[in-house]
Amino acid sequence: MPENTPQNQEQYSGFRPIRLILVILGLLIGISFAAQWYSRNITMPRYCEYPVEETLGRIQQVLTEKTPAGSGNRKPYIIAARLTFLLPRKPDEPLNSYLSRLQRHIEQQCP
């Protein structure tokens, strides 16, 4: 019959929070990298289909008007609004600076 020594008790102590923390940290980092990859390779190319000036105009309307599409087609405005989630506006950033930063970003991503 095995003896109940401190070494044996230490081996079978069960719950190890450091392993759980490392697994969760690894999952979060993996999700972050996957989201960045998806944004760069799947989502951004969708914005390359539209002229930059049109997209920036729609983004400006989304940010400044209550109902930018009016009674017309909303899809282009929804697409423009999604871009504001990929590259959010910084706190206290003027609208013109934000639109310039968006334009540079789109031009870098779209060949």
- Helical proportion? 55-70%
Strand content is under 5%
* Helix-strand sequence: HHHHH
Largest sheet: none
Describe this structure in words.
The protein has one domain. It contains 5 helices and no strands. It is mainly alpha-helical. The mean pLDDT is 82. It is 69% helix and 0% strand.
Write a concise synopsis of the structure shown.
With 111 residues, the chain is mainly alpha-helical. The protein contains five helices and no strands.
Q: What are the defining features of this structure?
A:
mainly alpha; 5 helices
Task: Walk me through the topology.
Layout: H1 6-11, H2 17-47, H3 52-64, H4 75-86, H5 95-109
